[in-house]
Amino acid sequence: MKAGVIHCRCSKCYSVPVRKRVRKRTPALTLLSLPEEVLLCVLQCLSAEDLLAVRAVHSQLRDIIDNHSSVWARVSFKDTWPAPNTVWLFERAAEKGNFEAAVKLGIAYLYNEGPLLSDEGRADVCGRKASHFFSLAESLRSPLANPFIWVFIRPPWSPTGSCCKAVVFDRLKAECDNNMEKKGPLLHCLARVLQLFEEDEKHMDALLMLEESSQAGCLQSSYLLWEHNRRNAMADPGRYLQYVRTLRDYAAKGCWEAQLSLAKVCSSGNPLGLEGRACADLVAQLFSSSPPAPRHHAEFSVSISLHLCLCRYILVDWLVEVTTMKDFSSLTLHVTVGCVDRYLALRSVPKARLQLLGIACMVVCTRYISKEILTIREAVWLTDNTYKYEDLVRMMGEVVSVLGGKIRSPTLLDYGEVLLSLLPLERRTTHLFSYICELSLLYSALSTPSPAKLACAALLLTRALHHYAPIWPSQLADYTGFSKQDLIPFAVLLHVKCFSQDVPKDYRHVSLTGVKQRFEDEAYQQISKENVLTYLLKLVEPQMDPPSPTGQPADITTFLSSPSSNSKRRCDDSMQAHRGSFVATPTAELSTQEETLLGDILDWSLDTSCSGYEGDQEESEGERDGESERISHSMKCHILPSVGLKYRSVLILLISHKATILVIKINNTSL
């Protein structure tokens, strides 16, 4: 009888239907299944819009989000600006400790961009709200960080009397009397604002505020007071010694400006009476603690990186033109480009908004460094009205919030001032050093080394091009901590990028020569017109060098050559003896194809030279015998495919993995 079939109701025929076994479902894993610590980490990585969406899914998620301030403190407001329907979200996050929300709210209320307020009493209402969120943003930063909110309320103020900046200033001043915890940084900001006015009375009030701020524990105010009293202290040696000791204390507490000033003082002399080695170590600490260079965001550097690097080149060249037109300092330009690179290291930016990012960084940096500022309306006009007033205001908020309020960062010029105070150069050579430093801003590849190392490499290249001897003295090596071998790869990279490659062109096929035109001015002794390629030939022909400024033969031969075994030295001597038989085409007369070839070879050789230095290791007989074979193979792989038969001779600087200069003659027969 089949199971499940009923013939009758008797006990013989009746059977119970077979029950199917039902498998229990495995409970689905959701966000609520995660441990609370892991769930909090996930929620902290969400944007504000996504956080609101997750909050509306489940009551338990809503309770977790509302009861943990760390979620609101770390929520991202990327590309989001306060609007009438989202102001409550920004305010809630700001009160929970979100720095980005506090900065954007302060700027939004200050410029009345975003929240809709009535015209009646708008300056007073916006000023009170802006001062509250600016004060909140300043309190969320480290005590050692430089206060920054004074950048937005600095003069000029509106002469009509209803100035929102003046309201913010008065509200912050009143808050200093009621909140002792915020008194130090807030008084520092108020003093920086008063210092920019022309009235002597306000300057005296600024000094009093700096003294109160210093007593409240603001290290930056203490340093500004030291700077103000420095001139009076220099007249008395005993008093000056005490001031230098005070500066050393500020530097030990972590004030970077004090560390830079202390390095300059110790480089130009030894006022502390330390031993020579101790004084050198004190300066070397500044170079060794140089922050690493920012690396661009993955979306910026990986996807279509070559195209975006060209866009960055065009942007920096345009910023150079703006700097020249507005007569801003080189420091302003360097800090602006530094802000751009640091922002790109944290956020990806579409190509269409790169110019907006650049001009927003310049607006902020001019307010921080220069007495003459770049106004927002003028900045919009400089972009040919590509962007609107509100676009620039919002980008300023994005930049300051992403950078954490840190506008000023160490630049090449800062370390260059220490180097030049250690070993001063002639005026024209100093202009060449500044020229190389500004050229380095154009190339993203030169942002890889730290600013301290790149500044030393720029000085090494400068001294080599102007035939200083020795090129890298032991004093520079002791005070910086970098040897000549450490800097040679970066000096070669500087020369290749700045002088050996063709200048890129924009969409109009116009060469981008903003830096070159800037240094063609008489103020820089037209240093950019100097034929650097001719000097490169003189690097190869040291016996034809003119006397160096020190009166000693320039140490050019060892600039790009490494110490090696005696056999190699004999080989170099033989090359020097027969160098006159080579037919060398002057570098200044090379064609575009030959110059491109030269740059490609230097790029290829630089990659191999960075793999390690082995010049001091003894070579075996097999290695010495295979030296010519390796060079021949390198020539076939990297030179022969690029050179046509029509070239009788080509001068090639081939830097091998041991950084040895070889001058090679290529004849038709060898090709």
TrEMBL record:
Residue ranges occupied by any F-box domain in the UniProt entry: 28-75
Keywords: Cell cycle, Cell division, Cyclin, Cytoplasm, Cytoskeleton, Mitosis, Nucleus, Ubl conjugation pathway
Quaternary structure and interacting proteins, as annotated: Interacts with the CDK1 protein kinase to form a serine/threonine kinase holoenzyme complex also known as maturation promoting factor (MPF). The cyclin subunit imparts substrate specificity to the complex.
Naturally occurring in which organism (per UniProt): Myripristis murdjan
PANTHER family linked: CYCLINS (PTHR10177)
Family recorded in the similarity comment: Belongs to the cyclin family. Cyclin AB subfamily.
Protein name listed in UniProt: Cyclin-F
GO CC list: centriole; nucleus; perinuclear region of cytoplasm
GO biological process terms on file: cell division; negative regulation of centrosome duplication
SUPFAM superfamilies found in the cross-reference section: Cyclin-like, F-box domain
Matches recorded under Gene3D superfamilies: 1.20.1280.50, Cyclin-like
